[in-house]
Amino acid sequence: xxxxxxxxxxxxxxxxxxxxxxxxxxxxxxxxxxxxxxxxxxxxxxxxxxxxxxxxxxxxxxxxxxxxxxxxxxxxxxxxxxxxxxxxxxxxxxxxxxxxxxxxxxxxxxxxxxxxxxxxxxxxxxxxxxxxxxxxxxxxxxxxxxxxxxxxxxxxxxxxxxxxxxxxxxxxxxxxxxxxxxxxxxxxxxxxxxxxxxxxxxxxxxxxxxxxxxxxxxxxxxxxxxxxxxxxxxxxxxxxxxxxxxxxxxxxxxxxxxxxxxxxxxxxxxxxxxxxxxxxxxxxxxxxxxxxxxxxxxxxxxxxxxxxxxxxxxxxxx
Amino acid sequence: xxxxxxxxxxxxxxxxxxxxxxxxxxxxxxxxxxxxxxxxxxxxxxxxxxxxxxxxxxxxxxxxxxxxxxxxxxxxxxxxxxxxxxxxxxxxxxxxxxxxxxxxxxxxxxxxxxxxxxxxxxxxxxxxxxxxxxxxxxxxxxxxxxxxxxxxxxxxxxxxxxxxxxxxxxxxxxxxxxxxxxxxxxxxxxxxxxxxxxxxxxxxxxxxxxxxxxxxxxxxxxxxxxxxxxxxxxxxxxxxxxxxxxxxxxxxxxxxxxxxxxxxxxxxxxxxxxxxxxxxxxxxxxxxxxxxxxxxxxxxxxxxxxxxxxxxxxxxxxxxxxxxxxxxxxxxxxxxxxxxxxxxxxxxxxxxxxxxxxxxxxxxxxxxxxxxxxxxxxxxxxxxxxxxxxxxxxxxxxxxxxxxxxxxxxxxxxxxxxxxxxxxxxxxxxxxxxxxxxxxxxxxxxxxxxxxxxxxxxxxxxxxxxxxxxxxxxxxxxxxxxxxxxxxxxxxxxxxxxxxxxxxxxxxxxxxxxxxxxxxxxxxxxxxxxxxxxxxxxxxxxx
Lengths: 318, 543
Prior knowledge:
heterodimer, A: disordered C terminus, B: Dipeptide-binding Protein, domain 1, six-stranded mixed beta sheet, ABC transporter substrate-binding protein (chain B), SBP_5_dom (chain B), SBP_5 (chain B)
């Protein structure tokens, strides 16, 4: 177990180094010059040259790379080309927003997904199952951006139930914070709820038709007890794994959601930085997201080894 | 969520789709869009205090008058950083921190500016002529300054007493007053400059109705009322939040939901629907800038490098470019593409400004027959192919497609190449294009709308155009102080431009700002800057 973890850690470090090279080259492969992009239509050639020198864009690429990595290791990602704000501060301000959104969305996904999954499994072949399956088909096929725009138009503009944009930290004002995050989190969570629903349903169907359940029922165990004690508990194992794997996807989905709801998260930061060719910000953000993804995967793997023995036990009973 | 609970959502969608299909009723017929610059608060009953939220269409860059180069920075700066001069609704320059227009010596080499005294910066330090001189000198001292060229050939800046600043010139430079009505004229606190240095933009301190509080990058900028401001009795709001919302649809949705009270740069596609909302009001001002098609006539090694011969008829033969200009049905294009919210443009000088003249307002007529004839004379194949690079935004692509259809009649086969904005800026700089479509936001002084893009060797002459006659005209115009004579010179320049057509001017947008009727006192002029400093929430109406 210790060796396995060590191996995984080493793998992760290597991935991170490779990612940093890819990011560095990728950013430079973007057409367009950051100094020009910053100056925009009003560019003054002398000022552009000064900015270029300030950014160290005159150095050869390998020198630029090692400088970038060297600074990054000490947590210094430089300053935004556009606004002059330290990139570390920008990430510090945006990452928590995205994490709150992702966690909230995941809660939504698990709540709706597990509930719909249980309903679909228990009421197999009857209308509640069609409803639940219909929902997941809908949520999976409809693009998040469309659903988001629709939600803004209908729930915010027409009915004025939710704010159309904005963000309040739930740590400052818990209720308002949650209120502002609700719509984006539900929109972002729906697609993932669909995935959770499908997994929950198939896993529960499998469990509920298993021999040991039939035995349990024959011994006179109640329906509710069977559903919750056997079915749900088994499917939760599956859900845990999926939640971990989907967190990465949530960050990608957050880019779109944050844009629609003008949420000041890392997704919006990424997108805006790409459009303005803000090299230091793009590099840092992509690196941080990659690192986050790697850490999540590590955690999932670790959790898996914890969960694994139990799975093997239930596998043997089959 | 069950299928049943989806019903209202789907019904809502149906309603939205249907309303979107209803033909838009124009509040006014073609050409009658009336300028509305907004009105000062005046005698209206207002509510004191409150937080006004503005949806900003783009993120400002550094909040530093010396190094900033983004148009949107001016939106925020206008509330925290007053200028020596400002413009009014007729695009005339008026004093703001100065007390009168500058006095120019007969030889044009000395410009004396009388400035206010007895007022203070937001940090409590006194505002006077030495402070103004310190601020202006910074534009020359800072390496990353974007202001140097705007201020012209200055040799020295003096403050002989507390209330006068004197600029000494090597050559007369007429555009200076206009420059001081822009970022160069924003006066920074010398104490803050000394303390922050290059980082002034992180905590800008000036004279203004509001003072800077904080900035959350890519998200918002907060300012609060400055009690030290000299005209504080006319400042009504407590705070203003500038929230960055780059997507036009999202700005429109937020206006309608009431989450924001003002938004700039509304698309002509959205403005009709917003104009019909009784809770919203459209402010509109004509632009000082223009949209255009630039032809590459000599930019081979990148802008700023000596121009070279390009062996292509489009670059060499002015007849082809004239044909292109004649094949453009400018009026029909703006009417159809922009629901007639924008105006056709044929020159870099905006009409109804102090430097416009009959010569600069003249427009070549739409004449596809003559266009084909010119192409025949030039001996090129018809249809003549042109590759046109365009930014991949909705409005620009729509215009490009309509243009493609229009010039086809005149014998051109335009191939549209959509390019992302930052990339197009790069293409323009490198000179890797035959023709490209981009715009210029415009400046008060016509020099910044002409010489910058057309004089030989200028850093903004992306097409690599070179004409000594035009160079001489434009130089003469900057050295002439009398506005009437300058207008005549720009008229001549426009005539020459319309023969050579290195840039074909297509349309002039209107600055469309939408505000909630719950607020009053918001103003915007031709420089596109939305002024919120003296705005207030309306009192009588419920909030």
